[in-house]
Amino acid sequence: MSFKIIGTGMYVPSNVVTNDDLAKIVETNDEWITKRVGIKERRISETEFASDMGYEAAKAALDNCGCKAEDIDLILAATVSGETVSPSMACMIQNKLGATCPALEINAACSAFIFLLETAAAYFALRNYKKILVVGCERISGILDWSDRGTCVIFGDGAGAAVLEKGCGYLDAVYNVKGGDDVIKIPHSLGCSPFFKREQDSPYIHMQGQETFQYAVTALCEDVNTLLERNGLTMEDIAYVIPHQANKRIVDFARKRLRMPEEKMVVNIEKYGNTSSASIPIALDELARNGKLNRGDKIILCAFGGGLADAACLIEW
Ligand code: UT7
Description:
Radius of gyration: 19 Å
Strand order of the largest sheet: 1-7-6-4-5
Distance between the termini: 16 Å
Strand content: 15-25%
Order of helices and strands: EEHHEHEHEHEHEEEEHEHHHEE
Number of helices: 10
Number of strands: 13
Bound molecules: oxa(dethia)-CoA
């Protein structure tokens, strides 16, 4: 059994950090960031942890479809920047919502929202669940090396959520994992026992930008094409593609390779930067709330990032 998305929600901190603000912290400038990444500003938390943002996004998604916490049978959350490893962000959000259902967290970095949807589809098939809440929440600003201009300018904080109801809207999905830590790595901040002899990396995002860039463009194009071919569709049949908002240039390269019209590719990176697992549900929420989606529209969500993992799914709205 599959599902329909019946509600969406998002939350971003109120603190806006512009490229000019960053130029006061690291050697960078508005022109470079705008041209190379396409970001003008991002939200950086001053008071919210990842679970606070996840809770706000979840509440907005529940309100959006007139659901209450007690209507939810399962909460699935994703993060790479939660304030606690345990309780998981899913458990924290469950508690803040006053829900009593099971809750668990999934880590697939920037691709996680699609892994959440696939896991939800599996749970709908396995159990007699009627509604599942999925949330991506990130305080990425807490895992950035703010002296590394190659990473600190591209990320932002935020959360996005969706309420899924048993139904027939999740049509197909594609997944790839090329495991390894040589391109993107976020080490945990672990203590050192008196017996441990290995060096540990600093607990920030380490990323080989160009390798990630190339991987991202290829993955995005291949995953979208696989979904189209497997389902006998062309780009004409697709209302929107919502890509992970990592870099405007990645999205533009992929769009041109896929021969897509600009208006079908959803881009909001200029306002929020790369919010990892939250980027797709935030873009989806904006699209839905702006009245751009009609029931029956086919949309593709596609993501790529740490793992390395990439994923895409075809949804009928
Ligand atoms: O969400 C997870 C997945 N992540 C991604 O998909 C990110 C993929 N990668 C990227 O988006 C890009 O590779 C970056 C935005 C991270 C970097 O852009 P780039 O065009 O690949 O730049 P680069 O690393 O090749 O650096 C080009 C130049 C270098 O200077 P030199 O050596 O040519 O003199 C850098 O030092 O740009 C310099 N540079 C900067 N200059 C001003 C790097 N970062 C900055 C900066 N401001 N913030």
